[in-house]
Structure formats: structure tokens, C-alpha cells
Amino acid sequence: MTLITLENRGGKTFEVNSKRPILETLRDQGVDLPFGCKYGGCITCAAKLISGKVDQKRQVALNNRQINDGYIILCVARPLTDITIKIGVESHDSLYRNPFLDPLEPHELKADIARSKEDE
Ligand code: FES
Predict the structure, then answer these.
(1) Which 3 state secondary structure label does DSSP give 92?
(2) Where are the domains positioned within the chain?
């Protein structure tokens, strides 16, 4: 069993099965979390990873800047260690940026785009 601590919910801790997506396993335990597609594509369920590690290979919603800022996609992410996260829209403070005022650098694009740029 793995522990998930919700930093912005009074540090409440949940025991979860690390083989199941975090969104599913927390919702089963009564945590109210926003979600949309449930396949890692829409970004609605994004949360901020404060500590620990997750496997979120299946996500396609985040660009590299958002990943470097600590965002994880709860509907596909599975914890690899005990983790502490910040959930809900209040964790989205640096998720969206104005692309005209603060454009992404090539290395901050989504991984597949960044790769194809490197290949040029
Ligand atoms: S619900 Fe759409 S990315 Fe998680």
C-alpha cells in the first residue's frame, strides 16, 4: 500500500493501491476531484506533485513546462512512492500561462513535438 497526502486538504492521508490511477482510488475514498476525459488528454484533473514520484507515461495533456512545474494528471498517474500532492483548481496557479506574453521554449513543448523539433 502507498500513502497519498493531500497538502491542501489539511494534510489528510489516504492509503491507496499503487496499481490504480490516483483519481480513481481517491474518488473511491470520497475525495471530490475535478475530472473530464479520464484518459489523460483534457488536463481537468491536473494536480501538483509536492513530493514523491509517479508514473504518468500515459498522459498526453501536459507540456514539458507543466511537467517541470510539478503537474501530474491524476486520471492516469500511479504513485511509485508515497506522495504529497496539492489538488483541485487551487493547485492550477501556474498551470496555464498566456502564450503571447510567455511563449514556450522548444524544450518546454509537449514531448512528441519537442522530439520532432530536435530531429529537424
Ligand atoms: S480527466 Fe482528462 S486529463 Fe484527467
Answers:
(1) coil
(2) 2-119
Q: What's the gap in Å between 38 CA and the centre of ligand 1? A: 4
Given CATH 3.10.20.30, say whether it is the number of domain 2-119: yes
Report the distance separating Cα 57 and Cα 70, nearest Å: 14
Distance 120 CA to ligand 1 centre (A): 31
Other C-beta atoms lying within 10 Å of the C-beta of residue 30: 7
Report phi then psi at 51, rounded to 5. -155, 155
pLDDT in tens, 36-87: 999 999 999 999 999 999 999 999 999 999 999 999 999 999 999 999 999 9
